[in-house]
Design brief:
- By secondary structure, this protein is of the alpha+beta class.
- It has a single domain, classed as Immunoglobulin-like (Sandwich), CATH 2.60.40.4070.
- About 20% of the residues lie in helices and about 40% in strands.
Length: about 160
């Protein structure tokens, strides 16, 4: 009896219209900056909703936790609150170049967020360098591609939304 029920459920799922998965691919570009005092930047990528509330920290690249607060907007919006989940998305700082980051359309609790307006935020801070923040509004539920302007610590970035 259970087998028939399971087969009917699977068949129903396969035949019913399914919600397409939403994904945002963010190409983070770290420019090559010369000089004897070059240190790799700390970088945070996070998502905010239409009300500028933090939805999810996608990734944080760092060396020492003491300097995370130098990424000021991320720290105020999400960093100081997401410490329990931070280990799951933290990695080492990256060399200059383009690095791909994926947001799977979920919030900090792992639940899918509804289609609508969100903002991709990318912030970088570098010792003996400067700070840069790039913000790009996106619309989940629509296929879109954006290219951002370069900032001091961040090169041009491509953000691709697929549904």
């Amino acid at each position: 009896m259970k087998r028939k029920h399971l087969a009917g459920l699977v068949c129903g799922l396969l035949l019913s219209p399914m919600v397409m998965a939403q994904q945002v691919e963010i190409q983070v570009n770290l420019p090559e900056i010369g000089g004897a005092m070059y240190y790799r930047p700390y970088v945070a990528v996070w998502i905010e909703d239409a009300s500028d509330n933090s939805v999810k920290t996608v990734t944080v690249w760092r060396k020492e936790a003491d300097w995370l607060k130098d990424m000021r907007r991320w720290w105020r919006k999400a960093g100081r609150y997401d410490q329990g989940e931070l280990d799951a998305v933290t990695g080492a700082t990256r060399r200059p170049g383009t690095h791909s980051v994926i947001w799977d359309g979920t919030n900090q609790q792992g639940q899918k967020v509804p289609a609508g307006r969100y903002t991709v935020n990318i912030e970088a801070a570098r010792e003996h360098g400067s700070r840069s923040l790039v913000r790009q509004p996106i619309e989940l539920g629509k296929n879109q591609t954006f290219t951002t302007e370069a900032a001091e610590e961040l090169g041009r970035m491509t953000i691709k939304v697929t549904r």
